[in-house]
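Reopening: structure tokens for the magnesium ion complex, inputs below.
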Amino acid sequence: MQVITIAARKGGSGKTTLATHLSVLAAGEGRPVLLLDTDPQRSLAWWWRLREAETPHLVECEGRDLGKIIEAARREGVHACIIDTPPHAENSILAAMRVSDLIVIPTRPGPFDLAACASTIEMAAATAKPALTVINHAPPRIGAAEPSIVAEAREALASMGATVAASVISQRVALSHAIIGGSTVSEYEPAGRAAAEIAALWTEIQTSIGKA
Ligand SMILES: Nc1ncnc2c1ncn2[C@@H]1O[C@H](COP(=O)(O)OP(=O)(O)OP(=O)(O)O)[C@@H](O)[C@H]1O
Ligand SMILES: [Mg+2]
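Re-run output (same inputs, fresh job):
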């Protein structure tokens, strides 16, 4: 069973957005997937209640309950648990990081976002769990070259010791439109660019877990 935590101590970086879109890919071909919403804001649960599809499954819980829930999921034959975390509750974020096979850290590419991301990267490093930092909310690429703000963010994150995903998630309205309808981009606009970016990130996450 894979346990993936999405964590970033900066609000609005895209934790819940990535948790939703990635979870539906994880649950492809009938694989049992469990979403764990540990954020008292319950945004993930809000999206989940809008869904018509019965998968993935979702449990609302506290960080301190994760150990028991993950063990139960393992016994039940769950394929992947994806944990969404709150931005500020350090103990809860740490609890999630500690039960993970991979920590995914989304960040916007702006200077304040990158500065704030350092503390999440350090926290993940302190748990000694593999971590993958993902640039989200990037300006869409025009042509072959990466937008300069993305290239600069990549450099800044690498200098903090982060492993930065080659996949970048651009700012695209499809990601929000899908959420409003209780779906994800792979369901709402499967041939779209947002769906392609999320799929590339999911493949990269699988490779990272495989290597770890
Ligand atoms: N790549 C993107 N393109 C367009 N909108 C996005 C993208 N990523 C996130 N958003 C939007 O930005 C807002 C913040 O995203 P989200 O709620 O996923 O962040 P978060 O890290 O979970 O925030 P919090 O720390 O408050 O839980 C949401 O309205 C979401 O729809
Ligand atoms: Mg959130």
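The CA atoms of residues 109 and 153 lie 5 Å apart. The chain has nine helices and seven strands. Marking as resolved unless the reporter disagrees.
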